[in-house]
Amino acid sequence: AGLETPTSGQIFLGNREIQHLEPHRRNVAWLSQRPALFPHLNVYENLAVGLRLRQKHMPRGDRLSEEQIRRKVLESADLLRIAHLLDRPATELSGGEGQRVALGRAVSVDAPLWLLDEPFAQLDATLRHEILTEFLLLRRRFRPTMILITHDRTEASALADRIGVLGRGRLLQADTPRGIVQNPRHRAAAMCLGWPVTNFVTRESEPLVGSVFRFRAETDTRTEGYALGVDPHAVRLVERAGDDDPEWVPFGRWRVERELPGTDPPWLLISRGECLWHAPKAAGVKWGEGDEGELLL
């Protein structure tokens, strides 16, 4: 997007090398947490400014007239339901309105690449959901390539075809959302997507009594930091393990801390010593706080 100068290498967009081009000649749309609008311009001028800048560097025969720019601005404003705001100063917009204007700017210039730096992070939950829905519709209509940075697993799962999980400056895993949920290759990846997130037990919190599970170092006794990750959907909490559970592995007795509110089907937060896990609530069992049951894997 032209915000930083590369220290080495080359950047190509399609077959065109772009790192030496001025930012407004790269045809890249950039959205950040804050809409980055020009505060001295109204909404219409904010939507039109990118189009006008691009005209200066186009062959004379390909340039848009002011009337064509106006039509493009009105079209994007109608699409994002901000046509009634065109005369309003950018400084008088709410967070959601400002982000829609920023989206409209990307739509109006037909950019093939959108760079999105947590564009919904500053919005409340209701507004975030609303704009996320509109964003999906824009994506299907214009089909740009998008690179989205987000800490929100819902956004990542809803928008992305592929997700790269980053940690401590490294790419830990790149896969489809389903691939990361079903086959995480790193603890951070396992904690990134899906809900509830993956359960973990470490050597320090190993449930010994009543469990067949053991940590064992086969070769290198210097290795530390073992952890077992278990998908919450792959466990059962029952009042008492019976002979009708031959395919399940006992994992000790656990205490119900509470039922998680607002979940359907209901989920339980359960504990064993320092270990806290999520488990689905068994159908027909009236679990209450302080109740204990057998956990099966």
Describe the secondary structure blueprint for this structure.
Layout: E1 12-13, E2 16-17, E3 28-31, H1 43-55, H2 66-79, H3 95-108, E4 113-117, H4 125-142, E5 145-149, H5 153-159, E6 163-167, E7 170-175, H6 177-182, H7 187-190, E8 199-202, E9 227-230, E10 236-238, E11 250-259, E12 267-272, E13 275-280, E14 292-296
Helix pairs in contact: 1-2, 1-3, 2-3
List keywords for this structure.
single chain; 297 residues; alpha+beta; five-stranded antiparallel sheet; three-stranded parallel sheet; 7 helices; 14 strands
Kindly describe this structure.
It is built from seven helices and 14 strands. It is an alpha+beta fold and 297 residues long. The strands form five sheets. It has a five-stranded antiparallel β-sheet, with no helix packed on it. Strands 3-4-5 form a three-stranded parallel β-sheet, with helices on one face. A two-stranded antiparallel sheet has the order 1-2. A hairpin with a 2-residue loop joins strand 6 and strand 7. Helix 1 runs parallel beside helix 3 and helix 2 packs across helix 3. The longest helix is centred in the middle third of the chain and has 18 residues. It starts with 11 loop residues before the first strand and ends with a strand.
